[in-house]
Design brief:
The protein is α+β, with helices and mostly antiparallel strands. Helix content is 34%, strand content 45%. The two termini are 29 Å apart.
């Protein structure tokens, strides 16, 4: 019995790690919540790839971005990504919580971000808060805020 439970536990952990890269229990998520988590994951990849065309479509025209060094708007964030002023090289997502309230969604991601900032490679632990608004059939990112945290930081589910 113990070995069966342990084997099942290992299988669930592997599936969650390989598919979601998070500690989120996907069986409890709605379709909209899973879609938002996937959209957020794609956003991190687009940032790493410097795919400003896809990001420009995702970012709401009035979106704001809060970083350790300042706050700026959509055009400035796109320019920062395009020029490589900040290169979001790789975001390892350790945990994510998503809440959908009517046409607004909030995601909290605990990540380790590997970035190149002003020519120096840095790795930083963050909780990133993302706010989305549903417009028609798509979600638009309204806000992205990086909060520096310790690696032991936990997001309450």
């Amino acid at each position: 019995m113990k070995s069966t439970f342990f084997g099942l536990f290992l299988m669930v952990i592997s599936v969650l790690s390989s598919h979601a890269q998070t500690n989120t229990d996907s069986s409890r998520l709605t379709r909209a919540e899973m879609a938002l988590i996937n959209l957020s994951r794609e956003k991190w990849q687009w940032m790493a790839d410097k795919n400003v065309d896809k990001l420009a479509t995702l970012f709401h025209d009035k979106s704001k971005f809060v970083h350790m060094s300042g706050t700026w708007n959509k055009d400035e964030e796109i320019d920062i990504i395009k020029t490589g002023s900040i290169w979001y090289k790789k975001a390892d997502v350790h945990d994510v919580v998503v809440e959908v309230i009517d046409k607004t969604a909030i995601l909290w991601n605990r990540i380790t971000l590997l970035a190149v900032v002003r020519g120096s490679e840095v790795s930083t632990q963050f909780t990133v808060t993302e706010v989305y608004k549903k417009q028609g059939k798509s979600w638009k990112l309204l806000g992205l805020t990086f909060s520096s945290v310790r690696d032991t930081h936990k997001i309450q589910h």
